[in-house]
Amino acid sequence: MTATARFIGSGDSFGSGGRFQTCILIDAGGTRFTMDFGASSLIALRQQDIDPNSIDAILLTHLHGDHCAGVPFLLMDAMLGARRRRPLTVAGPRDLRHRMFLIAEALFPGMHVMQPKFELTWIELEHGAPTPVGDLLVTARPVKHTWQTNPTALRVEVGGKVVCYTGDGEFGEEMALAAKGADLLVAECYFHKKPVPWHLNYPELSAHKADFDAERIILTHMSPEMLAHVDDVPEECAYDGMVVEF
Ligand SMILES: [Zn+2]
Ligand SMILES: [Zn+2]
Q1: Residue 94 falls within a domain, yes or no?
Q2: How far is the CA of 125 from the centre of ligand 1 (A)?
Q3: pLDDT beneath 50, residues of the chain
Q4: Span from the CA of 164 to the centroid of ligand 1 (angstroms)
């Protein structure tokens, strides 16, 4: 069975290239989920005519705003605007629930008094332990990125497919394990030449392709310097609205 990935947002946290922040929408095995949900992701969904109420689960790699800060906006819309009834699961790194509470209260003070009229489930993913999230089997592995964000790479098994997203982070063994043999690897590729710590850059990414051993790689989360080189690399590079089957 084929699965589909749509890049709702392929940008970084600085709006580089006029791109929306990270959000990858996957349809596989009868489940619709996103990997990350940045501050601008609800706007991006609307722009691409995707109904936010059609999403079953949101998986978060880490707690930087360009990867997770859209969740309070989505929840506010679900409770007030879109009148959601479909259950929603939000799964992510350690301390997810407490940290999202703080983020939501910072963005929408007083929001905690609102009660969703749909089933809302929070799941904190233990490192290296495949965890059921509805029909998905999700494994979070720690990556080298700003430690305060509890950074992980995510591996998702669903409908006979494996999709991995590196999140933000330097190359490491755990990242390679998350990607091993994936049908689709979505990899951060922040810089083309300049080595920047705490991020996956093109030199490391190309040097470690064999370690990832993925069927297909798509690069995303690119700086202006990398965006200037998308035509110079053999790998596929994401853009907002890009849809691929895998
Ligand atoms: Zn980021
Ligand atoms: Zn980050």
Answers
A1: yes
A2: 19
A3: none
A4: 16
Tens of pLDDT along 80-90? Answer: 999 999 999 99
Cα(1) to centroid of ligand 1, in Å? 31
Q: Which ligand is nearest to the CA of 144?
A: 2
Q: Is the separation of the CB atoms in 153 and 174 below 8 Å? A: yes
How far does the centroid of ligand 2 lie from the alpha carbon of residue 168, in Å? 5
Place of tokens 């596929």: 236
Question: Contact at 8 Å (CB) between 89 and 133?
Answer: yes
Judged by its nearest atom, the ligand closest to the C-alpha of residue 16 is 1
Q: Does a structural domain hold residue 241?
A: no
C-alpha 150 – ligand 1 centre gap (Å): 13
Task: Tell me, yes or no, if the pTM score tops 0.90.
Answer: yes
How far is the centre of ligand 1, averaged over its atoms, from the C-alpha of 67 (Å)? 6
Identify the nearest ligand to the CA of 62 by its number: 2
- Confirm whether 242 is domain-assigned: no
DSSP, collapsed to helix, strand or coil, labels residue 27 as: strand
- Residue 123 burial (CB count, 10 A): 18
**Could you report the per-residue pLDDT of 199-237, keeping only the tens digit for each?**
999 999 999 999 999 999 999 999 999 999 999 999 999
Which ligand has an atom closest to residue 23 CA?
A: 1
Asked whether residue 19 is assigned to any structural domain, the reply reads yes
Domain that holds residue 16: 4-231
For residue 110, what is the domain's CATH number? Answer: 3.60.15.10
Indicate the number of domains in the chain: 1
Contact 35, 44 (CB under 8 A): no
Q: Which ligand is nearest to the CA of 198?
A: 2
Ligand with the closest atom to the CA of 147: 2
Cα–Cα nearest to 79, from 124, 102, 50, 113: 113
